[in-house]
Backbone:
């Protein structure tokens, strides 16, 4: 069975998602730092999604998807493949609704994230670390259980849910000049684009993407999806290939990709740790790396940055610090 | 010249301190964690002093001391010896008042903390890492400059300032059953005792002290100061010897010392990092280690815990994680 062609969500879907997840999700704080404003020469407003339930923005989309399901579908559970944060988020959302959650995880996934997925009661299904193997395993679990597949970033319910982070940020700070979000598969980025177009059309959307997983930059340069990239980056949350629906939304919003190399991301990570005392994961630091690496774009501006998650593997982190 | 015998501050001094520092200090948030409540079987309320300016509660006392000075005294500057957070805090407070700050720092002090002290414009004076050498250097700098010596924890203005953290916590949560603070020299602990006696007499005060620097536990056991301890603990903020004035205040408040070994502190540190995403320093984790190590005292209770600071040396941290 092939899924129906996904229909792009619109702003009203974000508003519905915000209402649907309100009983479960945190309205995360917006953090400021004098020291980082000084480094950037800009007024930085960090949306702290590492303080979201499950430790990442992913809970928003997962929660919206799980609580959108009719009861009969929900009873058969949900299925996904995920390198980590989406799997944990879907597991938590399913636990809150009291339904089964099946998660296909690739070998080599971050240990802390697998522990979180199991902690929330999901059933793990291991597979080889290729996109093809992950999707095949997902199809098999779907066939076995009848559970609803919730894709980590192309599912319109997920996109609408992820957009609620920018919705909150822009409701609090409607006069942002720029919004910078990490770009992996594009769920957060495309949801943010929909929020921004409705609430802050003057705002420019920038997508921080690791140089080692720059399918987004290539796709924007070509004007068509170009996924011929083997991800090689410490940003384990940003290795997914940009989705077609996400790409379309981002192009319509005139988003601009800023690539950052891992060395700059690690420097930004250390700066964020020491200045804000927030234990964010490497993917989250790409946004500050993008701002610091492009002063001409941001100096003197009011900038929103989404810190996407804080699920760091402490052992892996130790090696980053040496 | 010898200083006048310090007079113990009273609750009104805490209220004055709160008003005096209000234009400069943050009212830090109180953090909750479902996961940590589950681990402890208690309702934990974390006062997030790592989010205070300068990255530690120390700014409260330093700010109160600096802004208490008459203009003529202030113009000659302030002097202190400090293994780190107090030095940085005094430097920041002096910078805010526009006066010189001299800091005597022992060899071997944490690199990140020295960088912070210099960042705030203080003049560093190095000395051997013994208490005698530190005090002698302090006296010399005082003689050379005429600056006012602000002791890190026996100065009554400092004690009153440190007490404002518990003042805020108890104003927000007046029905705490227990309050747990780290014990080093006793500035935070004694200030907290004064706040607690006035605002929450039903609350019991517990002092989390590293086993490797247990002069507090020995002093309470003997009923008299017993400083015959060579500190050996990863909690670099808690190596100071308990002050006489602090000990007197703590005894009057019927405080109880709970010692924790470094292994439990490191386990609590990792738990706090992974569950709250807050990058606190080892000294801050003693309070959770004390709660988890003494379930009979805390299970089912409403507990306040002061997270004292977040000035971690990232390289030292990496070795803790291996």
Residues:
């Amino acid at each position: 069975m092939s899924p129906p062609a996904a229909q792009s969500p619109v702003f009203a879907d974000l508003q519905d998602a915000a209402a649907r997840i309100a009983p479960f999700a945190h309205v995360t704080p917006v953090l400021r730092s004098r020291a980082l404003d000084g480094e950037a020469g800009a007024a930085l407003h960090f949306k702290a999604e590492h303080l979201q339930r499950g430790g990442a923005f992913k809970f928003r989309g997962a929660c919206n998807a799980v609580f959108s399901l009719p009861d009969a579908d929900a009873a058969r559970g949900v299925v996904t493949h995920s390198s980590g944060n989406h799997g944990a988020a879907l597991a938590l959302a399913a636990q809150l609704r009291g339904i089964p959650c099946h998660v296909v995880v690739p070998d080599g996934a971050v240990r802390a994230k697998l522990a979180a997925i199991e902690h929330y009661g999901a059933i793990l299904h291991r597979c080889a670390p290729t996109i093809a193997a992950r999707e095949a395993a997902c199809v098999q679990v779907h066939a076995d259980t009848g559970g609803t597949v919730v894709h980590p970033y192309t599912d319109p319910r997920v996109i609408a849910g992820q957009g609620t982070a920018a919705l909150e940020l822009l409701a609090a700070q409607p006069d942002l000049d720029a919004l910078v979000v990490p770009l992996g598969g594009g769920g957060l980025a495309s949801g943010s684009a929909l929020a921004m177009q409705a609430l802050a059309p003057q705002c420019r959307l920038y997508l921080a993407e690791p140089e080692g997983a720059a399918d987004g930059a290539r796709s924007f340069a070509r004007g068509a999806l170009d996924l011929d990239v083997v991800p090689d980056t410490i940003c384990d949350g940003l290795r997914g290939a940009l989705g077609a629906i996400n790409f379309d939304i981002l192009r319509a919003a005139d988003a601009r990709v800023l690539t950052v190399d891992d060395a700059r991301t690690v420097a930004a990570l250390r700066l964020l740790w020491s200045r804000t005392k927030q234990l964010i994961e490497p993917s989250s630091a790409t946004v500050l790396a993008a701002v610091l690496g492009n002063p001409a774009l941001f100096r003197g501006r009011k900038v929103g940055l989404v810190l996407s998650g804080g699920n760091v593997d402490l052992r892996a982190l130790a090696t980053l610090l040496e």
User: Anything to note?
Assistant: Chain A touches chain B through 20 residues (CB under 8 Å).
